[in-house]
Amino acid sequence: MPESKQGSSVAHFDVTNIGGIDETAVDIPPGVTVLTGKNATNRTSFLQSIMAAMGSTQATLKGDADEGSVALTYGDEVYERTLTRAGDAVQFDGESYLDDPSVADLFAFLLETNEARRSVARGDDLREIIMRPVDIDAIRSEVEQLEAEKGDINDELATVESRQRDLPDLEQRRTELREQIEEKREKLAEREEEIDNSSRDIEESRQEQDVLEEKLDELRSTRSDLESVRRDIEAQEESISSLKRERADLEDELEELPETPMGDQQHLEDEIASLRDQRQRLNSEISDLQSLIQYNEERLEEEDYDVIQSLEDAPEGSGGAVTEQLLESEDEESVVCWTCGSTVDREQIEDTVDRLQDLRRQKVEDLNDIKSELDDLKTDQREAEKKQRRRENVERKIQETETEIERREEQVSSLKDRREELTEDVESLEDEVDNLESEDFDEILALHREANQLEFEIDSLESDLDDVSAEIEEIEELVNRADDLREERDALVEELTDKRTKIDQIEANAVDQFNEHMDAILGILEYENLERIWIERVEQTVREGRQKVDRTVFELHIVRTTENGAAYEDTIEHLSESEREVTGLIFALAGYLVHDLHESVPFMLLDSLEAIDSARIAELVEYFADYAEHLVVALLPEDAQALDDDFNRITSI
């Protein structure tokens, strides 16, 4: 939505063929604008024009027109919408101020039939109305995603902590290896010095000694290769054992998962598609009923005599829209039906409108049931898809594990063949060395063997030291990363808490807003013996679709006082019409503030306040004026007299 603040701009409207308006141009400055005049002066029609410019579809075409339009010039922008008759419906086109007007229809455009305004008197589910604009499925999806991210971080931190516990032992092992290497090097230096001394004594046998030393070097190298192969075999066999354990765990998990998690998916999709069709049909029917109810109520209110005259003067067979006008005849207790021209009792048509309203309420209840059932089916579908993805992942991991086991087993087989070859080479070299030995060389040969063994041991220890040092460095890097991971987790936990409690926060904020503003307005309007009206959030077990769940409901409490000051709880049925109207308007204001419409919708509209006395209307308008950039109020002249003279007044539309 665009921002509502346009530098306190004047809003200019050009309207053609909307409601009862032929053509008009009206400027609405910031602050309070009062549309004042008798009935049938197009005040409600102009409010509908504002709503249409905002994006609402709760506006009607003039009865004798097939096309209408409204253009809003606001700041540097122009928004224009057209209304075209399409059979019994009206089609809306063009660019509107709001991308989605549904929340504004509910809480900003407070005409007589506004659902939030009427909800208190009808005993509707107040919590459902407040929470209707909140995409609960999206919030749940975000919570699941954040939970998964937090789980990944926790797994990584658990790995870090596990590895960190190994760090002291590794550091001790590294110290021991360094000490052992140093000791071996000292011994090797001693043996090399002894070899040098012995070599000087047997210079004449240098040639034989060179051959022997060459064989000893080859023997040492071959033994080193053999030891490396043995270590590789051990490492591979340990990896194979680990992979087999992992495969067993995966197979156990696979056993627990259903073989066909998705089941009869087509049946589930058909059910969902059917429920969506029903939801769409009910939404359309509810919208049509709302338009029909509003149209009839306006016709009864406006008492437009010109239209009936035009119907009587029209030639036979000229036709006309089925719902062009509902007009009051000279007899104030009867009206002329716009469909057939016959005179009927006004009460009969009002009863028909009441039945239409009852039908609309029933369809809203049916719609809520379908939404609940649709939510259940979507949840089942998401859970099945989740299990299906998990089963596919487990099967894939099992296959990858088996492939890796086969690869490593092949490597072990190859390494064992290599081990046998090296073992034979070592035995052959030892035989050659034995053949070269003589009594003169016994001592030096022993020294060479010992030196060769020391060098082999040093190489092995240095290899172990490299492995241990690399592992220590890896753990230290993980430990350094742990702080960042904890910060990420803390941020995720904070966001999760916010997401999980978002619904509670909205509910609590709505209750606080209603209770705060209701207390304030009752203090201002001073209704006799009406002490307090407030909402309490309570948990109840209710049925949603096929399940019983615990959910929050809003209970409305009314507290009155007796003449002697004793307080007692009353019911909504015992409120006066004025008190009910004020309560409904304050509930709508709570929704307006909770959903931040004061930041995104520049207009708040008030109509049909006749049930409230003029002095209280003036106080109510003053109170609402603090929350909207443009507050537009339609009033009868006698009700408008009590309002501040500084307010902008429009007496002709």
From TrEMBL:
Keywords: Coiled coil
Positions of region (Disordered): 185-268, 380-433
Presence of the UniProt keyword Oxidoreductase in the record: no
Keyword Lipid biosynthesis recorded: no
Biased composition (Acidic residues): 249-258, 422-433
PANTHER family xref list: ABC TRANSPORTER ABCH.3
Protein name (record): Chromosome segregation protein SMC
Species of the source: Haloarcula taiwanensis
Lineage: Archaea, Methanobacteriati, Methanobacteriota, Stenosarchaea group, Halobacteria
